[in-house]
Amino acid sequence: MKNLRIDPERLWDDLMDTARIGATSKGGICRLTLTDLDRQVRDWFKARAEALGCTVTVDDMGCMFARRPGQRDDIPPIGMGSHLDTQPTGGKFDGTLGVFAALEALRTLHLAGYETFAPIEVINWTNEEGSRFTPAMMASGVFAGVFERDWAAARADRGGETFGAALEAIGYRGPEKCGQHRLSAFFEVHIEQGPYLEAEARDIGVVTGVQAMRWYEATVTGQDTHAGTTPMPRRHDALLAAARMVEAVNAAALRRPTAVGTVGLLEVKPGSPNVVPGEVFFTIDLRDPDPAVLDAIANDIDEAAKQIAGGLGVGIAVKNIWTQPPQPFHPDCIAAVREGARVSGLSTRDMISGAGHDAAYIARVAPSAMIFVPCKDGISHNEAEYSSKEQCAAGAQVLLQAVLDYDRTLADRFGKA
Ligand code: GLV
Ligand code: MN
Ligand code: MN
User: Fold this and answer.
1) Which sign, positive or negative, has the C-alpha torsion 371, 376, 377, 378?
2) Average pLDDT over residues 194-201
3) In the predicted model, what is the mean pLDDT of residues 280-293?
């Protein structure tokens, strides 16, 4: 199907049009999951998909499935998509590109009157970012049977509102049980969010898997005391301990050349200029392709916590809240992506994803793969995040070709109707 071409302008228009929903003054998007802004972009997506003749269904985690029938409607659909939620200072492309590249691929099929063998679906997974409700990739995790639906629904944001209540409030709790929706395969386009494709001037990253990730929540308990009257040796300063922990996380990751370690959230109590902080909550995000490296880093952090706590007379409790093993993608889907890039005349590079993605969970229940496109200076989770119209279009074109390639293998396997 060399002659089916997605339209770069239409894709760009969708990206820019929806970027107004939650637009920030610095050119990014703040559209936290299950907020009213999330509802608005969902409504937009639903209306556009229905205008293309799709039927949109929603599951009880709020995941949206826009379906275009195929010749054989008894065969599970080929899914393609990503997420529409963003980080607090998110860019215009993380997640949205995967949903709108999929919508554009589907629109191209629709306008060409091309009938696929299997049904095709565009999917919006709920709460990929894990910024408001931890952990990340929450709904795709429920879909894949990694998390219980009730556990996920009970997760609360820092203000105490639960995922379940927020989902009800925006009217996107659907009747379908999350995970019951079978897929023949899943493809996700995403910006690389790192520097390699741009540095090596490659058009497309053929993603062969996602690295291992772990999240921790830590609480330091010290003593609130008067900042003017408490002599330095008498203090049990929780923030000082937390600062030393931040340093320890950084040092532990730096000792392993492939690893990364981040403290991204810190809450200081009581939060007053003239009170020595008595309690600090903070998060730790660790990643490496090899889980054994993460074990070693976690060990170092444990040791550091003991020493820091002893030295300052505070308590430090570190709790692992999420462990994601490395996830390889399926050889058939990777081959379809490679073929999609080849017929599109685009250069490629194989790569492991440093970021987490819904495809990493969906890969547990359906053959999956991802397509990366370059982004400027490798910057993401930042309002300045940028991929050009041409780069976005290349991702959508490879997606279309990969899905058609996979559809042909399904047709060969199941026989024409
Ligand atoms: C998802 O954005 C991640 O944390 O990798
Ligand atoms: Mn993303
Ligand atoms: Mn992200």
Assistant:
1) negative
2) 98
3) 98
